[in-house]
Amino acid sequence: ALQQSCRHMEAELKDLNSSMTTPEIAREIEALRKDCASCTEKLERIKSATNHVTPEEKEKVCREQQLYRREWRRRKRMATELLDAILEGYPKSKKQFFEEVGIETDEDHGVVLPATV
């Protein structure tokens, strides 16, 4: 019975040692209150902001993006066609030609066409 009581007290001591002390809890509560206050303040600033994007502005940006995507595809297609025409009579491979001329492709840099919104 004494050993069992001792084990029980050791387990209780282990729990108490792993738990936070009153000053630690007070510091934690204060930090959480400051965090909560800053989040509340940020939320209020966001709610009261007058610089929200209007649907018209969003539509304008989407149209511009579509225009730029079309232009990018058109220019890339023209460049590819031009290079393919040059490479028809060229004795070396496409990769060797690009290295000699110093052409960097979108694929070399991992650039992809952005998705439409």
TrEMBL record:
Domain (Leucine zipper with capping helix): residue spans on this chain: 53-110
GO aspect biological process, one term: homologous chromosome pairing at meiosis
Keywords: Coiled coil, DNA recombination, Meiosis, Nucleus
GO cellular component, one term: DNA recombinase auxiliary factor complex
Location(s), subcellular: Nucleus
Signal peptide annotation: none
Domain of life: Eukaryota
GO molecular function: double-stranded DNA binding; recombinase activator activity
Pfam families: LZ3wCH
Protein name: PSMC3 interacting protein
